[in-house]
């Protein structure tokens, strides 16, 4: 048994996948639970309030997912982070589409924008920390700026998700580009195999 | 005097900026012209048909805008291309938001998706050609793969536009990242000033 809000938030996830952000109704969400539409309104005044609560719920899960990526070295952990967002996250294009609809609403909706900024900052901070760690350990180039790399990777991941939804560009292909970037652009130039043999970069820099 | 379709398409641009994709109506568009709503329907059956025609119109302008970027060298022309999309294009965040709404509709709408693919392919092809030209001239590294760079830049520009709309990330900052990338990652390693002094990269590689 789950308590009502968790059941509602899980149902919101399903309903968003099925109907998209613009079309989904409180009725659609209630239909995915054992609750009545009236019971749903007891917890959330309107669809907007429920979606804001849903984004908070999603953020908690996102933070847990990116908080401690697998791997020993900063490079390995960056690779895991990229896979967590692009490879694993791509299982569900319909949900990704609903999130893009929400991004497109952000200029009209401060509550959405605040939540989206939390995701943006969380991912960006995680990358920044890993890159700074790699620079400090000497496994990344010492002229790499963690802030610049963090922002660039955040932008690139946004683009991979948008292109996936908009034109069907495979997120796995975007992930490969980032994996190559981590194994080449971030690695010290004098490291053996630099620029060509990058297959073992993760372990070599660990 | 412009003929009716051009007047309608220009009015669509204004109305999309003002109302967004989801909310805009045929009435809103007619109100921006000297035509009646009935006259609008004479040219376009419904809002969807009009928006598809609008995307075609936008594509023609896009193609003209990116077809011959300013500059003598491939690097200079790539810089101009980036500015055309991110610096100049960012003047109008409301219109960019409407386009993101349309991208989020693409999975449900084949006509939108086809049009978005034309934009994606046009930009990507333009980058590919410029990078291949730079590699052939020896002003870009010979191990640079034009296809990979073209796809990466297309993804990054999508991300810059999405982050601008979603979280207000400044597109000029994304443009700076790409300018630096063009001046460092694409340049031959043995070129003077490689990796540090990149201010004159455009002219140095011309």
From TrEMBL, chains A, B:
Residues 186-206 are annotated as: Disordered. One of its GO terms (molecular function) is DNA-binding transcription factor activity. Keywords: DNA-binding, Repressor, Transcription, Transcription regulation. Pfam families: TetR_C_6, TetR_N. SUPFAM superfamilies: Homeodomain-like, Tetracyclin repressor-like, C-terminal domain. Coiled coil: none annotated. It comes from the Archaea. Signal peptide: none annotated. Residues 2-62 form the HTH tetR-type domain. The keyword 4Fe-4S does not apply. Residues 25-44 bind DNA. This is HTH tetR-type domain-containing protein. It comes from Halobellus salinus.
């Amino acid at each position: 048994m789950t308590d009502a809000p968790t059941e509602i938030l899980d149902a919101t996830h399903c309903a968003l996948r099925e109907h998209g952000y613009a079309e989904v109704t409180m009725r659609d969400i209630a239909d995915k639970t054992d609750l009545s539409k009236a019971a749903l309104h007891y917890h959330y005044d309107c669809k907007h309030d429920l979606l804001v609560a849903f984004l908070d719920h999603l953020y908690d899960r996102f933070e847990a997912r990116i908080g401690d990526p697998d791997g020993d070295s900063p490079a390995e952990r960056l690779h895991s982070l990229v896979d967590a967002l692009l490879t694993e996250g791509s299982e569900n294009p319909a949900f990704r589409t609903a999130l893009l609809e929400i991004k497109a609403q952000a200029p009209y909706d401060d509550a959405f924008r605040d939540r989206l900024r939390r995701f943006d900052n969380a991912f960006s901070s995680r990358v920044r920390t890993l890159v700074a760690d790699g620079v400090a350990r000497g496994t990344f180039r010492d002229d790499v700026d963690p802030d610049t790399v963090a922002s660039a990777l955040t932008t690139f991941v946004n683009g991979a998700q948008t292109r996936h939804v908009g034109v069907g560009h495979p997120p796995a292909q975007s992930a490969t580009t980032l994996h190559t970037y981590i194994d080449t652009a971030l690695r010290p130039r004098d490291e053996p195999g630099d620029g060509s043999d990058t297959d073992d970069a993760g372990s070599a820099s660990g």
